Amino acid sequence: MAVTPGANLTALDVMRNAAVIPVIVVDDAAQAVPLARALVEGGVRMLEVTLRTPMALAAIEAIARQVPGAVPGAGTVRSAADAQAAASAGAKFAVSPGYTSAIGRACREVGLPLLPGVATGSEILMAQEDGYNELKFFPAVPSGGAAMLKAWHGPFPEVRFCPTGGVSVANAKDFLALPNVVCVGGSWLTPADAVKAGDWARITRLARESVALRSA
Asked: Which protein family is it in (predicted)?
């Protein structure tokens, strides 16, 4: 799905762009731009940079400014302050490990489409009360995996999920085969050893392989 960076994205746009949203941890801001270019070359444009390191916001800013075609997002958004900082850095979407109304309001105020994290039926209901039907199932495998998503499809047929946490190339197809799963999130597209070595060709190859999962 073609998406123009800077356009008014929705959470569903983010989910539909590719079969896998890469979960990226940046320890060195200098690696952000070549890493993003490698992923975009492989057909993956929605890039979730997690706010787990001091370099994350600088990485988002660099990607937003220097990588045409990339759509940087912020992961591990845990507060209104995180949402505001991510938007200021140039993030175009947000992903949270859980959900509160304060996070939802903050993301709306700064114009960030949000994929809120949920792990229970009650959390799904809380997110839906605030208008969120595109959700991150996290941590997916420890929380019941594909079997849990199958069970949720009955009472929540309108909800679409991005399972993340324990998802890998080995089980991604099982999740993607479910009617309520649009994409998955995973860190295997950016293995730490490849990033450290600057092996961008390997990351491009992994990105291309991930894109093919949707049609496999």
From this structure: Belongs to the KHG/KDPG aldolase family.
